[in-house]
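In the laboratory, one determines a bound structure by crystallizing the protein with its ligand and collecting diffraction data. In a computational setting the workflow is compressed into a single prediction: the sequence and the ligand go in, and a structural description comes out. We illustrate the idea with 26W.
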Amino acid sequence: KWKKFAATEFSNKEEFQREVVRHVETTLARSLYNCDELAAYSGAALAMRDKLIIDWNKTQQAHTLADQKRVYYLSLEFLMGRTLDNALLNRDIKDYAVEGVSELGFRMEDLIDQEHDAALGNGGLGRLAACFLDSLASLSYPAWGYGLRYRYGIFKQEIIDGYQVEVPDYWLDFNPWEFPRHDITVDIMFYGYVRRYTEDDGSTVNIWEGGEVVQALAYDVPIPGYGTSTTNNLRLWSSKPSTGEFDFQKFNSGDYESSVRDQQRAETISAVLYPNDNIDVGKELRLKQQYFWVAASLYDIVRRFKKSHRAWTEFPHQVAIQLNDTHPTLAIVELMRILVDKEHLDWDTAWNIVTETFGYTNHTVLPEALEKWSVPLFQNLLPRHLQIIYDINLFFLQSVERRFPKDRELLSRVSIIEESNPQVIRMAYLAIIGSKKVNGVAELHSDLIKTTIFKDFVKIFGLDKFTNVTNGVTPRRWLHQANPQLSALIKEKLGSYNFLKDLSLLSGLEKFADDKDFQKEWMDIKFRNKQRLAKYIKDTTGISVNPSALFDIQVKRIHEYKRQQMNIFGVISRYLSLKAMTKEERAKQVQRVSIFGGKAAPGYWMAKTIIRLITAVSEVVNNDVEIGDLLKVVFIEDYNVSKAEFLCPASDLSEHISTAGTEASGTSNMKFVLNGGLIIGTCDGANIEITREIGEERIFLFGNLAEDVEDLRHAHRYGKTPMDPALKEVCEEIQKGTFGEPGVFAGLIHALTEGGDYYLVSDDFASYLSTHKLVDEAFKDTAAWAHNTIVAVSRMGFFTSDRAINEYADEIWNIDPVKVDN
Ligand code: 26W
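The predicted complex, in structure-token form:
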């Protein structure tokens, strides 16, 4: 009965069209005769949004009624990208929409292109959170994401004179996908002091008071699942001055400036995403962001739990909280504060609740990325939380001492407090101690954390606490949306789109791997995707590339451990070989386009130098008439989610070449293979599992193994490693000035020589180059290449984020789906 009154159930193009027109004319107050693409996009987005809201309300109602355990995914980053196309596809109404807007005189692709990416993340960790939200909704799990509503997402990258320049990403001009909840606010305190007093019954009470208060305001973003009505919630907090705090006294007495300053200070907390990936800078504002977000989220979670009037000990049966890396680790401390200081539970009861509630995912072993907070800084901002951390540490160390008496070394190694000057809090240790389960994100990575950085904790807690959940990607966005032609071809062969819900069904493709007609259709789609990329490159950079050439792509954050420098050195080496060849020899070579993309953290000088070398090499190589189409080098500006969507379908080869043992998992490796590309890569992260699934004859592996890295580094330190001769030639060419003023690149060369080549570029260079030769040979055999990419895709079922989420649900969260009626 209620359904009759519910707006927007589109069942045909006319209804969609009518809603678009209605929104353009009324919500946007524009005439249809004055409707540009942006207005048409807005109308379409608002029409889609109306539909999502209905499902979203239904979902929240169903979840409340079911009263089952929910999971809360706490992440400082959600790299969502665009929403409209994804929502249309997940709700299976894209066809109506395309027809509907076409009759209004628009092409849907152009409208979709009007949308600004929601880029509230840096790289892998943020995009993983977005894929997980899609899977949680698609599998009907009762789940919420919690994050920060940054006014500025990751900066936009411009390349000016070959250098990266950062431009602020103000993305909130028109964002139809969020809803401010003016009634949902939480006051959050910072600074202040702890007042301790004794109750009549002799117990001590700690009260944190006297600090400055900032208000958290909730913004909700609907997350539509695929092929289900379930529409989950992503709640993002925005900071503003607390109503009590905005100083009307000052304001009225004419001290307007300082009252506005207070307001701005409050708003600063959620103003900007920290643009660092895999490096900890320890800034106070970052700690403020973390506490602000964690405290608001926990307040919200606890409030929801309290509505059910259950005993506190039931909390872990109703609530699972997953910590996406250590950034939300303060949640452990904040929940202790709520239970002990506010709800007056005794310490042990509270601690049992806490350690049954949390799970911690580690995403990196790089020492410079492990979060540590200076004790003095922390004490000033969160005095009560520091006391609680000291108590957690004390009880923990006492229990370790009981089990391992007289091992003072062990105690100092596992202490949450590192005895440096100043002392620092090791957030990863706190996260481990306060969680029920700790997981890494690929098999090798999960093994490494158990044997290296967290070894002592395995000894203390036992192996069962440590587990692996290999990452995955959502096939909705990364196959169906990014590569609609390939998705349609697969559907034609398999008979339905069921593979988008159960990716293991891709195995049904394998029997077509040698079918010549199928191979042709398969490779034609790849060619069209490459043509589209070639056009984009031409339009944005002016560089002409031949779509028949081998497209070799490396797109990811620029970092020394990911070794884009090795890639560009390899390109230089190829260039030098081509130059040395006769015309006849050259004519036999495989044409190549080397494509790079990725942002460098603004303060990461070496990463910026790598970008400069890539652009310098591209200027020389692309303008060398002797070389022509044999080699082109392209740097794609401002790599982001929506660019990844057209890059992944257009690769023949993609590069995942981190120093073994450094890339926790990688997820773009999965996206590229899923779209019919092959990989050149090291034995690192998820490359290893991809190899196991697709077969080692379908992946170009090279380089040293993780277990040998330490010895190799040691050898470098003691000067026992002569530089690889091909690499030496490359360095000499750079130093000769072939790619411009060599002084610019001195840092890169220094890192290989006096710097000790920490990332082992020289050690892996020969096998990298010879493996590229194998790629060239393989690419010449088109039928075999087609066969291998089809087989690879058919075996990629494991790498769906649905599988990953089901593993978390079963082994860590202990939650079940909730059915939401249509
Ligand atoms: C404190 C600064 C900081 C910021 C971000 C430290 C660490 C991070 C992230 C954990 C870095 C990150 O994104 N890690 C990536 O996580 C992906 C998802 O699990 C993995 O696929 C990547 O291999 C890993 O580098």
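Residues 1-8 have pLDDT under 50 and may be disordered. Keep in mind that any predicted model is a hypothesis to be tested, not a measurement.
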